[in-house]
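Quick one: Peptidase C45 from Bordetella pseudohinzii, structure tokens please.
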Amino acid sequence: MTFNPIIIEGGRQQIGLELGKLARAIMPAYLDQSSTWAALRPWRGHAFLDALGEAAKAALPHIWLELEGLAEGLRMPLEDVLLWNCRGDLLRKSSDGCTSLAWRGADGARWMAHNEDGDPYLRGRCRIVDVRPEGAPGYVGFYYPGSLPGHTFAGNRAGLAQTINNVRARQRQAGVPRMLLARAVLDCTDLDQALDLLRDLPRAGGFHHMLGSARDRRLFSVEASPTQCAIQEISKGYAHANHLLHPGSPPQVITDSSAARQRRAEQLMDGWSGSAGGGDLVTALLDASGELPILRTDPQDPDEENTLATALFELRDGRLSLRVYDRGPEAVLKLDIRGGDQAGP
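--- reply ---
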């Protein structure tokens, strides 16, 4: 995989079109080997999928235009692209995993780090995109072929950072598909706007959102599931794998890997001192100890997921920076997403 960002700009439909073109060559082979796609195909033509599409168009018309452009660029039916982008709303099992960490440094810096775990077939086949839509801040993030960016890790030019973890809620309901909702967060200019969006829109599926801002000292853990949006401010350090942790969580599936990664991440963070920083978060996410480690490289992983990239965001004095790692301690990408000025988005 090359981690050099691909710049994509223009109107919403044009951005979707270019994202689709970027993935067009790989998409047929990717879907052919995907057990998730095989499980999704019976949902073609289902009234519930139509309801998810209608909810998305009504609540997020700009994001829907991106989805239409994505279908055009992929040269796939819009219904199939919607189906693929609703996989976590329809299925309890999909090859999207991840571990996220957050930490407040002693010097006022905030750190957010994330392992993006996905289909092992995609190792070396995903991209970093620098998306610059008209009328929105624009963002830099990880792009899965055929999926709107936002449901992985990304930071926008207003200074907002988001990492996403898959959760496997047993309930489903008509509402906005979770991947489109995560994409919409990247158009927000501050934390309160992002929290309102997640809280107020009807949610079809479940995600964990880790949220921070270069212009706001707060960090948040948000578990946005079909039946509730649980928001918790992070006081010092926090770890989250692929299951709901907040009190009153709805019924869910907790895999052995998710439970093991959660325990190990908390164990590692418990040993940190007040001087811990970004390097400690990266080291934790590269931890390969145990039968079901945080760093996932086993082709026979029980959740069918491997670590595709590790991201570290630093939020300090109005500046948002991103470093990306490829299963090793040396960053393969370093960039500033937002400079240190404080004068608005």
